Amino acid sequence: MTFELPSQFHAPEQVAFHRTELNVILGLYGRMVAAGEWRDYSMSHLRDVAVFSVFRRTAEHPLYRIEKRPKLRMRQGQYAVIGMDGQILKRGNDLRQVLRVLERKLIRAVD
Description:
Layout: H1 19-34, E1 40-45, E2 50-55, E3 64-68, E4 79-83, E5 88-92, H2 95-110
Helix pairs in contact: 1-2
């Protein structure tokens, strides 16, 4: 005899960005494209992490990665912005606050 847990108790098969999170990320992406800083993006939804990568050119390595790791929600924060070199630029639980590190670059690009 096998016992199966109801679907509400199963861990999700992959982590993904919610529509409201994507609206915030794509809003910033659109402003950076308009400023000529970014040209392409990609998204990956894996078991433990969802990644939104931004590129200056398609064939390059990503300039920045915006990651969502729900398991870190109670520790450092589930959202992180990671630079091209792998350095964590900002981490926290408020996506808008975390993305401000990239909006500062937009202000400099306009000046």
